[in-house]
Design brief:
By secondary structure, this protein is an all-alpha fold. The protein contains eight helices and no strands. The mean pLDDT is about 85.
Length: about 160
């Protein structure tokens, strides 16, 4: 049986248990980490919205090229684009697809093509993707038995 003094000392203690304080500190760090990661992605999006020297932002140009090339897209080229963006993680797939479609549209319109072809899709995909993702792109093209040697000069930039 506990003595009255021990019970009184326990009940009159004003400090919370140490495990509780450690759990508060742990979740505080977790929240700071999550907020930092979210802030990083929001800042990247903010940079895309800032106007460049020509007065249009990167997103404005992407929307322009997608709208300008919309009549050139065929069902085959849309399906091929969907195939190309399959390796991109789901939450980022729509954004990646839009920026890649903008680059493909730009290449198709500037070349004076009457429709978007697989050639335009592969070139646009290479140009729109960061260099660090080329390994995944090459693996994907090899898996689909697509010859990428005509685009080797774009991959070696």
């Amino acid at each position: 049986m506990m003595s009255v003094g021990v019970v009184t000392a326990f009940l009159s203690s004003s400090a919370p248990p140490s495990w509780f304080m450690y759990s508060i500190a742990f979740w505080g760090w977790v929240m700071l980490g999550v907020m930092g990661i979210g802030g990083f992605f929001m800042f990247r999006k903010f940079l895309k919205v800032l106007p460049k020297a020509d007065g249009k932002s990167k997103l404005d140009w992407q929307n322009y090229w997608v709208e300008k090339s919309l009549p050139l897209w065929t069902d085959d080229s849309k399906a091929f684009l969907n195939e190309l963006v399959q390796p991109v993680p789901g939450p980022f797939r729509d954004i990646a697809k839009h920026s890649i479609a903008a680059e493909i549209g730009k290449i198709a319109v500037e070349s004076g093509a009457t429709e978007v072809t697989r050639d335009h899709c592969i070139k646009g995909y290479i140009v729109a993707t960061p260099k660090r993702d080329y390994k995944f792109l090459v693996d994907f093209l090899q898996k689909k038995n697509i010859d990428y040697t005509p685009y080797q000069h774009l991959l070696n930039k």
